[in-house]
Structure formats: structure tokens, C-alpha cells
Known about the structure:
Chain A: Pathway: Amino-acid biosynthesis; L-leucine biosynthesis; L-leucine from 3-methyl-2-oxobutanoate: step 2/4. Chain A: Heterodimer of LeuC and LeuD. The structure holds two protein chains of two kinds. Chain A is an alpha/beta fold. Chain A folds into two domains: 5-263, Aconitase, domain 3 (2-Layer Sandwich); 273-418, Aconitase, domain 3 (2-Layer Sandwich). Chain A contains 14 helices and 18 strands. A five-stranded parallel sheet of chain A has the order 4-3-2-5-6, covered by helices on one side. By secondary structure, chain B is of the alpha/beta class. Chain B starts with a strand and ends in a 5-residue tail after the last helix. Helix content of chain B is 32%, strand content 16%. The interface between A and B is large, with 53 and 45 residues.
Amino acid sequence: MGMTMTQKILAKHAGLDQVEAGQLIEARLDMVLGNDITAPVAITEFRKAGLTEIFHRDKIAIVLDHSVPCKDIKSAQLCAQARDFAREYHITHFYDVGQMGVEHALLPEKGLVAPGEAIIGADSHTCTYGALGAFSTGVGSTDMAAGMATGLAWFKVPPALKVTLKGRLRPFVSGKDVMLHLIGLIGVDGALYKSLEFTGEGVSALSMDDRFTISNMAIEAGGKNGIFPVDGVTRAYLDGRVDRPWESFEADPDAVYEREVVIDLNELKSTVALPHLPSNTRTVDQVAGTPIQQVIIGSCTNGRLEDMRQAAEVLKGRKVAPGVRCIVFPATQQIMLDAMRLGYVETFIQAGCAVSTPTCGPCLGGHMGVLSDGERAISTTNRNFVGRMGPVSSEIILASPSVAAASAVTGVVTDPATL
Amino acid sequence: MKVYKYGDNVDTDVIIPARHLNNPDPKALASHCMEDIDADFASTVEEGDIIVAGANFGCGSSREHAPVSIKACGVKCVIAASFARIFYRNSINIGFPIMECPEAAAEIQAGDKVSVDFATGVITDETLGKTWEAAPFPAFINGIIENGGLLKSLKARGIAK
């Protein structure tokens, strides 16, 4: 029986010629990731279990990105715990304030993930690296502890949902709109336990940053991972970042898919997700005029350079509306430097935005942009659950950087094409 | 033991809001468990109570703090129509029992008296006088649960040192 891209990578990492959906396997890992919220729990479990050895100091990444720069004493203590462990075990890829970025922007940027590799991360958006043709998935802290100790993780081989993309995106429409559209179509559990396998001639017209955004939100459809084939765009991105050998995997022609969804990129409009589920989608014109008080542009979903460019193009020569707070978070130090060099940061500040050092803070209501009672934000992040960014009465509308920036200018949900 | 019943897509942000993740102590997490969906839960839950919910329970974040907080409340198990995959594996990895049974999840009502037999997967609603059978775990997963969680099972197999 034919295998999907995901199944081939898992078979290879389990040392098997063939795997099929539903099979339980143990796979060898190329990278184990954790952050300042999940790594401390993993470290506590690691120590509690009496473990003293890690499998490979170069294949563990610890990124302090969620509550940093530390928002309170308890967060500082968690960071200290992670820092001490990284020092004790000589973890090569430990990123602290000043070097760190939002983990799922940082790892690809640093060349720590490559096609054909198997990666687990104690963060649900670890599925981001599927954009590079890797198998990567989010796990919990105990999985991270086990992965650090053994270099192994158990998986149930996922069945697949095939997403065939055709055509090209129109101006102001981005990878975020593709993914919100897909989640609206299949629901927040539409890909539960499954892999999302993106394919079709439309893939080649998607930039690397669009692909990262799409793979990033596979979890918002319940997916185990969201994977793209490797092409010239991928290779151009990897060039100069990854110098170790890597392998790309193509799906067999007779691979089995539980379902196929076809998306014509030409027909997509800017799309938003209304409170309180990522699947509660509308095209932006359907909800234009809805008032917002805060705008968040950034995160592991949309904090990359192309996202900064899209926001800057909308904000250039314009001002953030009175009564609106717009906070921009370039996702890594390198993205910040590039955004400065290209004039985006100046555009943001001239427009009246706050520009921040990288952090996941506002996305999960941690810090740097928590909402008050009854406030509504439009955000380029990934989740709009009840209480995600503030009290239970606050609301989040998920959107692309262009839509978020246009909404910042008007103070209401706005289609950037109408500005 | 009593049942707390919730709908579909109970996400990890309502099970344990991120504002409480700065203190991962299980007892501290338990004191805020379900706070944003059911403000009375943490103060009324008792040892042996059961959570019953719809589809996609535990969706969202990978935070293991979610099943840890439920377990630390003394909840005996969660019965749901389906589980989000990270919550599912986190529960197994920490040795916390979950049961996937759409029929039981639909019919059991809040306040019902329910008992569960993990060995057989049989769920009994004594109030309704009905029983259901949840799909059993494969042997590999049972091995993890029976060893008291993933790390203990890897140690028992001599893989983790």
C-alpha cells in the first residue's frame, strides 16, 4: 500500500519499510524542543524519574520565549530552572533573552529543522516545520522529558487528509487566509489525529512564510501535523541555513487519503475567525465595521518578515486610529533587524504602533497586551478561545497581517483592499 | 461520585488558563482547574468525580498542565466523545485514565452516578441504568499506563537512564 509524505518519514524514523495508518511505532527523533512554560515541567519530571542522561546535546532546543522578558517572579524562576538545566547538560541550542525568538520562527531560521526530519516539541505549534517537509508535532512535557532522555517518541501513524491547492493568491490574501478558510471548512477537529498533506500546483506559488503560517495552524484543525512537499522555494530557504544532509519524501501515487479538499487560491478572500473558535470563519467583507480596541501583529503564526512587510505596506503613511492600541512583535532578533533595515519598524512607530522584542506573551494572555473586560482584539495569532487573551468577556478575531493592520488604521475590522 | 458535564471543544485555555501556568505545582493548578468554563468546579469537585464531555476535549495548547490539573483535583477519569491528540497522549503519559465513548458522552448527564472499569472499558451510569463499552487501549499504551506513565515505562524497559 502506498504511503503519504508523513507516513514515509515516520517509517524511516521507526526503521521500517512500511507503516500504515493506526500502527503504533517508536520513532527516532532529530530534534526535541521545549519552552519556558513546558521545559520546566519536563525537567522536573526528568529529575523526578531519576534520569541523568540526555540522548544528544545538539538535538535538544530550549527556547525561553513565552513569559520573557520575565513578567513576574514565578516566570523568572521557571526560566532559571530551564537555564540551569541547559547549562548542566551543555544543551547546544539554548536561547535566552537577547538571542531568542518565538520558537517556531527561530528554529527554521537557525537551520535546526530540515526536510525529512522528525521533530517533537512541547508546544502545540511545533507542527510549523511541516512547511519544510519535516514531520513535526506538538507533544507535552513528559514526551519532551522522554525525548530528551531517549531520542525516541511513540506515535500512532496518522491517516491523512489531502489538501490540494491550485491557482495563485490575489493581492492582500495570504497563507493565513488559506488556513482560516480550511479550518472553517473542516472544523476544529476536522483533521483530528490526522496529517494534513498539502499538495497541488498552487503550492509552488506560496512563499515559505505563507507555508509556515499554514503548517503552524494544522493543530487548530486538530491535526497531528501539516506537511508540504519540498520544492525550489524550500531549497532556496534552506540554502545557507542547513548544511547537513537531508532527504525529501514524496507521497506515493497510491497513498491513501481519508478525504480530499481542493482549494482554489484565486477564489480566496481575506478571511477572519470570529470568537471563540478558529473555525468560526467569515470573509472580511462579511464582518467589516466590527469595532476593535487592540491589534496584535506577530506570533509563531504571523511574526515573520513577510508578515512585517504586509503590515508595513498597509500602515505606511497612515496612523493607528485613536482609541486603538497596535502592538507589533517581530518574531526573532533577525526579523527585527531586517524589519529595521527595510524601514518597517520606522513605519510602525510613525503610525503609532508599539514594537516589541520577541515574545509569545500576548497570544496566550500572558503579558505585553492582555485585554480588559469586554475588549475585542484583532490578532494575527492562532487561537481565539474564551479567555485566551484576557478575561472571559474579552474577544479575539483572528486575521492576517494585512487585515489586522488595516483594522488598526480604522478601528474597525477592515478589508485592506478597501483602504 | 458525581459527573461534571461539558460540551464540545473544551480547550486547554479554559481547563487551565495561561495566566496560571507560571506555577506548575499540581495543587496550585488544581485550584484554578476549569476556572474559565465553570467557576465552581475547583471548589466543588471531590475525589473520584468524573468529567464527561463532547468531541475534541482538550484542544489547543500542548500544556500538560491541563491533564495534570484535572488529575490533581482528584478526578477519576474523563469520558469524552473524542480527545484532542496532545491531551490524549499527555493523559496517557502521566498515567491519567481517559475513555473515548461517544454514546456514553452523549447520554450521561451532569449529576448522574457513574462508575468505570478501566480493565474492561465498561462505563455504567447507575442513575440511567445503562452501560457502554469504551474502545480498549492497545497493549503498547496499556503498558505505559500500567507502569505509571511514560518515563517509568521507559525506565522499566531500560531505555531511559
